[in-house]
Amino acid sequence: xxxxxxxxxxxxxxxxxxxxxxxxxxxxxxxxxxxxxxxxxxxxxxxxxxxxxxxxxxxxxxxxxxxxxxxxxxxxxxxxxxxxxxxxxxxxxxxxxxxxxxxxxxxxxxxxxxxxxxxxxxxxxxxxxxxxxxxxxxxxxxxxxxxxxxxxxxxxxxxxxxxxxxxxxxxxxxxxxxxxxxxxxxxxxxxxxxxxxxxxxxxxxxxxxxxxxxxxxxxxxxxxxxxxxxxxxxxxxxxxxxxxxxxxxxxxxxxxxxxxxxxxxxxxxxxxxxxxxxxxxxxxxxxxxxxxxxxxxxxxxxxxxxxxxxxxxxxxxxxxxxxxxxxxxxxxxxxxxxxxxxxxxxxxxxxxxxxxxxxxxxxxxxxxxxxxxxxxxxxxxxxxxxxxxxxxxxxx
Length: 396
Prior knowledge:
By secondary structure, this protein is of the alpha/beta class. Helix content is 28%, strand content 30%. The chain has helices spanning 2-17, 81-87, 107-124, 147-155, 177-180, 205-211, 234-239, 250-270, 273-285, 296-306, and strands spanning 22-32, 38-48, 52-53, 64-70, 93-97, 136-144, 162-168, 188-193, 217-222, 289-294, 310-313, 317-319, 322-323, 328-332, 340-346, 351-357, 366-369, 376-383, 387-395.
């Protein structure tokens, strides 16, 4: 495991110093007219022509997704430099709200700030007078740590432009972030620390994950992580001495987080199938963490199981299990008891093939062309009146 974590630490180093893009920075303040011109101050980092303040966004013909990330209680954006270094260099706009840094913050206002920033960028990015003209995609995500993580859950209800949500050791808020998760229907990635004594997973992140309604969500519990491992703040970490056993340094927590978060965002915001495969492969390694996942193909399985149908995992035989696009996949059917449905889902949970099968006794293998399949992992699911069968294959 130490070898694996060493490699992950190298990943974080590469995230920080192997820069695909230079990092530009601007400090902005907008007024939210819907809330009595509430001033919303924020820092924005972006892929730039060169490193510096107020430098131009790089113009290489690409548009970049935008992420809003909220700080924890009594923390500031400066405590999350690692996130800036790991995401902006890879082609993301990253916004840190500077609001609700006071002793008694408003969780509702903080959440609305996330949505306001995203909505304002969305409606102005096609204005040729703005410095980010034509450089931002129609893809936005929200995230946060601790209080900011809980507020990321709250913020989803305030903007239809938010396409994905992630958070790090998210804390329950007032109003309840856990309750708000019942209406979240976008992809979600929830990180938790097993050694977290400030917002313990059992009463914070796990209930949030369980209530999220989206058809693809992932919960990652990092074995040695503490609450403050995700923030570069000595006071925060010092406060944990009285409630948490001594654990490994925060670098391992950040390494695991970075290795999963980058490909997940690349998949959800850029539609990168190779990144989705990378994310699933790292999850499957489960070194230094455990995880739960519920994606669309798995959701269908769960729905069938809920009504008492038996599951026979990997009862479908297929050849080849790894192929290039354009190859024919041969699927040998089990002996189905009645009319059944064969479905294939991609790794984002979208169905890409459906066929109704009336009989499978002595049936020749089903031959499916993958000419229109992109690279990635695919899930096969066959259901009849009594059973369900599943398997996977990979297009390389």
